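**User:**
Make up any protein.

**Assistant:**
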Amino acid sequence: MIGDAMDRKPRLQNKPYTRTSLCEICGREATHTCRQCNRRVCDRHYDFSAGLCTACALKIRNKLAGASKVNPADLGVCAVCMDAATHICKLCKRHVCDKHFDKNLDICVMCRIRKERDDMKMNG
């Protein structure tokens, strides 16, 4: 009996264990998990109708609509410079800011460079 009491772990009085996590988009308290990417997000960044984080829901909607311009708060950061992302490249699907997006081609600068390199190989 004495050994049993010593083997038990002490309990915190009136303080149940709770694991809190932060929204992976804005840093607020996360209350949901995206079904697509498993990102932990807050109510503000959760699309209740889709069961997805706003970034995944927006990607799907843009893919269906063929759009590349998005709300920066929904995407997070640019894959190149970590500024706020405002576009999705139609080729590689990277999230990029205005500085790293070619509006004429609707692709990111990395894909533009690759495209130019491939064109040079074909022409010369």
Q: What stands out?
A: Residues 5 and 13 are 17 Å apart (CA to CA).
